[in-house]
Amino acid sequence: MVNPIIVILPVLIPAVAGVLGLICHRYQRCQSWIALAGMALSLAVSLKLLVLVRGAGLPLVFQAGGWAAPFGISFAADLLAVFFVTMSQVVLFAGVIYAAGAKDRCVAYPAFYPLFLFLATGLTGAFLTGDVFNLFVFIELLAISSTVLTAVSDDGFGTEAAFKYFFMSQLAAFFMLLSVGAIYVSCGTLNMGHLAQIVPSLGEQGMLPMAAAFLMATFMIKSATFPFHFWQPDFHTAAPTPVSAMLSAVVVKLGVYGFIRMTTLIFVPQGEMIRGLLVVLGIAGIIFGGLAAMGTHNVKRMLAYSTLAQVGFVLVGIGWGTALSLTAALIFAFNHSLAKSAMLMLAGHLASRAPVKSADFSVVAGRGRGLPFTGILFFIGCLGLAGIPPTNGFISKMSVFNAGINAGQFYGLALIGISSVFTLVYTMRAFMRIFWQAPEISGEIRSSGDLRLAPALLVLLVLGLGIFAGPLVDLAGETAARAADNQAYVTAVMGGIK
Fold first, then answer.
1. pLDDT tens sequence across 388-398
2. What number of other Cβ atoms are within 10 A of residue 161's Cβ?
3. Which of 369, 378, 379 lies closest to 445, judged by CA?
4. Is residue 32's pLDDT more than 80?
5. Nearest to residue 239, comparing CAs of 361, 139, 149?
6. Overall pTM > 0.85
7. How far is Cα of residue 193 from the mean position of the Cα atoms in its chain?
8. How many other C-beta atoms lie within 10 A of the C-beta of residue 366?
9. Residues 119-143, buried b or exposed e (16+ Cβ, 10 A)?
10. What is the C-alpha separation between 374 and 448, in angstroms, rounded?
């Protein structure tokens, strides 16, 4: 018999580590070790939870305070939630490793590591909660942590970027609260499992269409989906590298997770309409993000626009609505998290070695000529984003195209196929400019900079999951199949209550 407390341990461990970090606020090295130990333990528990949930074939549920659903607060670890938790914890652990070896002044601030751990708490809690209102609570914890972490950035535009993110987060929170109110008025419950039972019988009655629209707006802002992407480039460019790597790689996946939950669990009757909109917005994001990335002047900014395009592929996979396309979306989301976080860390490493700490192309151009190991890592990361073998990006792109052919979505495939060439263009251009051409400004490269251990580990995973893709493909397929059949989730959470 599995103790259900394991369901909330990936949420509790970073939270406790964050509190311990606050207690040790005078000892920065102690804080970094606490953060490393906390995220390592949390990742280990998440992997154990993944094994348990996959082996059991049913979700594991923790009912807070012993109150049965729908009256208490439920935490449900089904395979979809644990898939996203594991993905995010891998990147978050790498983020702590990078922060420990970073030269940013803000990393030494007493609040940095506790806030980073609270960010991990909010993101993990949002994936595991089985209640719509508590999803709002965890999203707010995530937003507050991210805002402050950006505001303390060494970059002079950090405060401005933090204000932009804060106001966009408040807009998302406003939409979320409107959705929560509309759902409760219409259904009398906020438990996701209970909603899965009630919503199909109500159809379009009451305020359900409005609730679905508000929730869609929330997740569109959180995932920086076109046309709600305008805040993202400034925010990711100015944020400290360990933070921007998390925000662009895994925090945006919260919106992706929300879309899947909406179409497979909460708003199944409205799913066809939602999926149709996701396809349109996804293709628009792929085109716009690719074109914008080609025209930008900053490596981090380029990668931020790249996220808009890459998330577009995931949205298209969800929107096509088949088991194969959802599998492709999950594979793409996981692989993008690894490649994008690695690339942003490498951009931060290059900026830390430049005469002036900046990821602007005019500053980092030519600065990689004496860094062959960084060049190899950056090149593999470019291949991963562009979908070139033997990286995991190739598996991701092929999965999406295979799903599109299987679903007969040839017009959409043509558009995203042409647009996907943009990724190869802007990544290879960036590589050549940084590692081949002569420097554009004078000044010697610094003798030391941010450590490359974290991006090296992530790039190794990018290669490993490209060469040995079977385990992830199988896991994504099983996750998609279980998500499409929500009866097991409902039974586990509700325990037979109707």
1. 889 998 999 89
2. 24
3. 369
4. yes
5. 149
6. yes
7. 24
8. 18
9. bbbbbbbbbbbbbbbbbbebbbbbb
10. 13
